Task: inverse folding
């Protein structure tokens, strides 16, 4: 995968419908991570960092395509595929996601690293974990070389190139 000087990266935030704590269920959080990993493979975008909190997911996604529409397509597919699978598995009907999501373009590799660090601190700031590594549904362990994460990530090396973890 090429260097980020030719890539476009976005910080994406997805909120659950009505801010319901959908992802407080390990089954839901695990399913979200599996769907994200499958789409990463199927659509060819990069997952640089992520955290899944009870009422939202925050992701740093990247692609070598300079056309920013790729992120809208990736997010729409992620939301629809997770909602379809979650509703089917849980025997429920209804909305899973807020219509709105946030997509913030990121700059250089330093910006990606700073945002990933903040993203990994979200569970601590929310009082859900005592330290970032204690939160299971996060890319923190891959970023720190402490082991595998539920979804493989494309880490940024010192030269700005992405390399896959796990």
Result:
């Amino acid at each position: 995968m090429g260097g980020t000087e030719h890539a476009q990266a976005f910080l994406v935030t997805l909120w659950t419908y009505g801010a319901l704590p959908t992802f407080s269920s390990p089954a839901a959080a695990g399913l979200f991570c599996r769907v994200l990993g499958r789409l990463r493979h199927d659509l060819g975008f990069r997952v640089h960092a992520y955290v899944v909190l009870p009422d939202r997911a925050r992701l740093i996604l990247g692609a070598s395509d300079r056309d920013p529409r790729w992120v809208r397509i990736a997010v729409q597919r992620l939301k629809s595929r997770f909602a379809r699978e979650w509703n089917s598995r849980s025997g429920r009907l209804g909305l899973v996601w807020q219509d709105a999501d946030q997509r913030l373009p990121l700059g250089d590799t330093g910006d990606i690293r700073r945002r990933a660090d903040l993203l990994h601190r979200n569970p601590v700031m929310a009082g859900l974990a005592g330290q970032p590594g204690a939160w299971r549904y996060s890319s923190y362990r891959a970023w720190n070389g402490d082991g595998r994460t539920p979804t493989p990530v494309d880490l940024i090396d010192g030269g700005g190139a992405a390399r896959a973890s796990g």
In short: The beta strands are 8-16, 46-53, 56-63, 97-106, 154-156, 162-164. The first helix runs from residue 26 to 43.
